[in-house]
Design goal:
The structure is a homodimer of 281-residue chains. By secondary structure, the first copy, chain A, is of the alpha/beta class. The first copy, chain A, has two domains: 172 residues, HUPs (Rossmann fold, 3-Layer(aba) Sandwich), CATH 3.40.50; 89 residues, Pantoate-beta-alanine ligase, C-terminal domain (Pantoate--beta-alanine Ligase, Chain: A,domain 2, 2-Layer Sandwich), CATH 3.30.1300.10. The first copy, chain A, has ten helices and ten strands. Chain A has a six-stranded parallel β-sheet, with helices on both faces. Chain A has a three-stranded antiparallel β-sheet with strand order 8-9-10. Chain A is globular and about 55 Å long. At the A-B interface, helix 1, strand 5, helix 6 and helix 7 of A face helix 1, strand 5, helix 6 and helix 7 of B. Chains A, B: Its EC number is 6.3.2.1. Chains A, B: It is found in: Cytoplasm. Chains A, B: It catalyses: (R)-pantoate + beta-alanine + ATP = (R)-pantothenate + AMP + diphosphate + H(+). Chains A, B: It comes from Ornithinibacillus xuwenensis.
């Protein structure tokens, strides 16, 4: 497993691959890789000649009171996951490599970044868009793979890729879940045993929403109320949001015509978890 | 002279050139090309295998009261300039090709975009950074050529290219002037005969600033006062700014240590013209 820490070395590798007419798949991550990431790497390896995984805990996408310092890290474990799932290279830069002195450029978006996680994390998506732009320019992939768990992020990256004319195909990949339904997340590591049990309420709530939809409920107020009620049964849960939104615009809708996304963000103790489910016939 | 209007066709051409291992030089313009643009094209043709000139009057960089609708255009003339000076391709997209429905992403910058033209044109550089990001992603040049006449823009593009990790070298090229000193600009077209004569005051003022500097004046207040006095002799001139700034940060300085940029923006009648001169030993 080749590990590259500088932009210069990364560019040289990319140049060699492109000169050899090889396609590049890219999986941007913040590390502490789990089976969700592994599924992205495997899909990239199936579709592309070479797979680059970036591991970078991006300070710009954390708010001042968020968990930047405590975000879990384990590069040795991550190397193993990358190797076993078919990646050829890990891009693992220091913060100073991506944000040199005098750094002052930003990529931002109207619309899609409002609502859902954008409400409680107002600067988050500016950090995501900026770092993904940088990583796209450094890795120059043909395809980039993102998890559907971060549904708003995926919609934003798709929009940004079109808007800024990146010559890159964005591939969204399904959520990977624990046997009880909990969506895999590096932040699950924060949960103690009691909290881990409680965290089941997110997927349980979403499944109730999906059942209602499958029973022809199209009124989003009714769906949200049922999801909220299930999550609120859990004493350790504090709801940030329960929303039903248009899957393209990420804006709340009152009635579901074709498809919708039901998305939740819930604090379990101090840990903020997100999850979502697609509602469509 | 090949003229391409769609992103798709541009990408295909770029792919063919890159597959043939040819380097691409890029000259982004708003068209109505003059000898300043021609000098950029010639330099690109000297340094690169293929030269792309984009011609796009970018609505996003015009303020609501500015001259978007009246901005001069002459694509037939522009084709000739491109051909004569060594370009192979003109990228000439419609507005709807670069800004499709739902467009909502932006590239912005702190610091460098404040002051000088950023003060009277607050959204201008957001539009410049966004469209240049798009054009860089579409044309994927090895080198991009910009005129020193737009000194703040050049500094911003250099900063953005580093910050967002574009694999592109930015080349700044000298100002081209009329025999009387007037910096070439597509907007000179707006000037009637009387205004054209009056417009001499910009370069005349800057030259007085340079003379003072060459006579060891290092106090920027003295330099600005002399430049302003010369420009103000011209009854048709209304000064937007006269500034002496650090050439990297574009922030005003009081005393010149090594080098500085003296920059002016002046309305001649209704036409806003800019010019600048580098002060260094």
């Amino acid at each position: 497993m080749k590990l590259v820490t500088t932009i210069k070395e990364m560019r040289e590798q990319v140049r060699r691959w492109k000169a050899a007419n090889l396609t590049i798949g890219f999986v941007p991550t913040m590390g502490f890789l789990h089976e969700g990431h592994a599924s992205l790497i495997r899909q990239a390896a199936e579709e592309c000649d070479k797979v680059v995984v970036s591991i970078f805990v991006n300070p710009m996408q954390f708010g001042p009171t968020e968990d930047l310092a405590s975000y879990p890290r384990d590069i040795d474990h991550d190397k193993g996951v990358c190797l076993e799932n078919g990646a050829q290279l890990i891009f693992f830069p220091e913060v100073s490599e991506l944000y040199p002195d005098g750094f002052s450029s930003f990529v931002n978006m109207d619309g899609l970044t409002n609502g859902l996680c954008g409400t409680s994390r107002p600067e988050h998506f500016r950090g995501v868009c900026t770092v993904v732009t940088k990583l796209f320019n450094i890795v120059q992939p043909d395809r980039a793979f993102f998890g559907q768990k971060d549904a708003q992020q995926l919609a934003i990256i798709r929009r940004m890729t079109i808007d800024l004319s990146f010559p890159i195909e964005i591939i969204g990949c399904p959520i990977v879940r624990e046997p009880d339904g909990l969506a895999l997340s590096s932040r699950n590591k924060y949960l103690n045993e009691e909290e881990r049990t409680a965290a089941h309420c997110l997927s349980a709530g979403l499944n109730i929403g999906k059942s209602l939809f499958e029973n022809r409920e199209r009124d989003t107020h009714a769906i949200k109320t049922a999801v909220l009620a299930r999550i609120s049964q859990e004493a350790l849960a504090r709801v940030d949001y329960v929303e039903v939104v248009d899957p393209d615009s990420m804006q709340p809708i009152e009635k579901i015509d074709n498809a919708a996304l039901c998305a939740v963000a819930v604090f379990i103790g101090k840990t903020r978890l997100i999850d979502n489910i697609i509602l469509e016939d």
